[in-house]
Amino acid sequence: MNQALGEARARLDAQQAHAEAEALTPARTDRQRQCDTGADERSQAEAPLSEGEWRFRAIVENAHVGVTHSLPDGRFDFVNRTFCEMVGYTAEQMRSKTWRDLTHPDDLAADLALSRRLFAGEIPYYTLEKRYIRQDGSIVWAHLFANYIPDGDGRPCRGVGIVVDVTERKRAERALRDSQESLWLAKHAARIGTFDWDLRSNVIQLDERTYELWGIEPSEPITFEVLRSGIHRDDRTSTQRALERALDPNGDGQHFATYRVIHRVNGTTRWVEATGRVSFEAAAPARMVGIVQDVTDRKFAEEKLRASEERFRELANNIDQFAWTCDDLSFRTWYNDRWYEYTGTTFEEMRGEGWKRVHDPAHLDRVVAHLQNCMQSGRPWEDTYPLRGKDGRYRWFLSRAVPIRDASGRVVRWFGTDTDVTELRLLQEAQQEADRRRHEFLAMLAHELRNPVAPIRSAAEVLLRRMPHDEQQRPLLAMVQRQAGQLARLLDDLLDAARVSQGRIELRRELLAVSQCIALAVEMVEPLIREKHHRLLVTQLAQPLYVYADRVRLTQCIANVLTNAAKYTDPGGEIRIDTCAQGGELIVAVSDTGVGISAELLPRVFERFVQNERALDRSQGGLGIGLSICKQLIEMHAGRIVASSHGLGRGSTFSLSLPLAEAPDIAVRDASTAVEARHRVLIVDDNRDAADSLAMLLQLEGHETKAVYSAEEALEQAVAYQPETVLLDIGLPRMDGYEVARRIKAAGVPVRLVALTGYGQPEDRQRSAAAGFDVHLVKPVEAAALAQLFGQSARNSARA
Description:
Layout: H1 2-12, H2 14-24, H3 30-45, H4 50-61, E1 66-70, E2 76-79, H5 81-87, H6 91-94, H7 99-102, H8 105-119, E3 126-133, E4 139-150, E5 156-165, H9 167-190, E6 192-198, E7 203-206, H10 208-214, H11 224-229, H12 233-247, E8 254-262, E9 269-281, E10 284-294, H13 296-316, E11 322-327, E12 332-335, H14 337-343, H15 347-350, H16 361-377, E13 381-388, E14 394-405, E15 411-420, H17 422-466, H18 474-501, E16 509-513, H19 514-531, E17 535-539, E18 546-550, H20 551-567, E19 574-582, E20 585-592, H21 626-636, E21 640-645, E22 652-661, H22 672-676, E23 680-684, H23 688-700, E24 704-708, H24 711-720, E25 725-729, H25 737-746, E26 752-757, H26 762-771, E27 775-778, H27 783-790, H28 792-799
Parallel strand pairs: 17-19, 23-24, 23-25, 25-26, 26-27
Antiparallel strand pairs: 1-2, 1-5, 3-4, 4-5, 6-7, 6-10, 8-9, 9-10, 11-12, 11-15, 13-14, 14-15, 16-18, 18-22, 19-20, 20-22, 21-22
Helix pairs in contact: 1-3, 1-4, 2-3, 17-18, 17-23, 19-20, 20-21, 24-25
């Protein structure tokens, strides 16, 4: 047919084909010209057949398959409408294309090889499934039948192609193949085999996986008896019962059984789970189809889980704590035996929210609220509360619960424990009571020791003022003053020991110029600096910078950092102290040219007991707690301390930052102000030495004083003497200073009340304020504190 079609086409259009071939191919080969000439001659010789051939051409144009003619160089000589629609080009566009242009690159080599053999006369035709590339870039799968039109000598002159679009078939085949692959992968991944049992003939068809499970050769005829012989003898009865239930016409035809299969060849045992469905004909079972799945790993896991749960329960029932589980809504699902032994209850009583029955009602609402909050957020829960035992008495328990999550992270249940902490709480309460008593003892000891220190210090101050020119006695009196001050500070440290143990450190803040603290710190460290021949440079602004801080603690911090700089700098090094204001903060930076700090140590330099490595000649270091204490004190001042270093051997810098305070408004007064600053002062203290020495000291400052030694005298003289200020001891016999202050205030006496006591704790200050005191001073009172109390500092400025 194809050969006749080609010949008809040649007869109808020989002249046109020859002209087009000449136009499209400037250099024609002799063989091509011969082919065209032969076709032209046949066209002229067979012209009478043109009417039938035109009808044939109309049939070809409207055929449902693609028809193409191509010249030996691959150019299309003719394409019908179906092929144009198949590849998305018009007939005119196709004249500039070759079949190679439209062929998918992956198919081109095979098509070219077959085409060469065709035009070489080696084969009369060929068929090929190939892909064409459409004009829009999409792919068309086609079945190609190709042969040729011979010339006068019978040699191939034109190629003829019959093209059938098989794209849909290819898609269907691919979908079927993908489906089969998916099914195979699913079966393989799930280790599933299939069976089809004809119950009437007792012939069973198995797939490869089922053969493998039983160890049976695929060529062997399979009956139920063959399969049953491979089932473990201990499982045959249960398997038979499951089968009988499935084959019962009155049942639902569902089959389910789990059993062990012994491999016929290697003897291994595998657990198998079989699922099937029976179809019935005329109320008789006719066919069962189903699957078998290897569940050995799951059975082993279940066995391990069961054994693990048994071990867990055994462990949980033999620990001292109560153990329990609950769901994600806090409903209890299990308790260990210890719980029942203590509460005397049963699981039926305790399941769900039954646990609330043994809780102390006074704590229940708090416990439930905290528990629900943690369970909603998924955070571990911890609480302490009493639980009632079967004897009706309550004991304290520390309860903890942690969430158990599934693979997706969702909380599925909780595991909790209750630990009896009754004895621990009693010990803690006893410890707290002991701490309280020790604190009271230390406070009382400090108070009792301050009482004799106060007159010693006051007497030394009086003597110094009365003997301004006695060069032999003044050094001794100054020594008494210094030692009395040192003793007072040791008493403060004695109280600090109690405060530190309780996490309570009191700062004595005042408005001060930081230059004073720097000067004091330099004075403290100067011997070490001089010993190591360091050069110390101190730079400060011309305008004083003020902070609201504890003078002693801030000096301690600066001295600590300065001491470290001196220790860890080789002899002859340089140390700088720079002070500046920046962003509302005071910054004191102490830098050195010393050993520096390694990058590894720098983040930990403020931790306790952390020290830089030292050589033998740098053994002056302490215990490694100085910087830690310094950091704590600076942070208590709402400040911060930062360390920086460029590395070992490149020095370091410690920067202390504190909030700036406004500078005080100091008015300069003339000498006449001193007369106006006289005060009438009543001093009340049952320690006569303390009262008299303080009275003498104030008299030297130009004040008028009167000393009394009992509460009764204090109440009497508060009216009779008409003092402006009353310095009132708290620890008076028969009636303490608090009561005296309350009575003076109640009497409406216009006087400033100053508490004078050895007790300086925050609660002591709160109590004195509540009693009506205006000022709280701690013994021994320093002269500077008294000067500040009476405005003496202003007069000293005027005298200067």
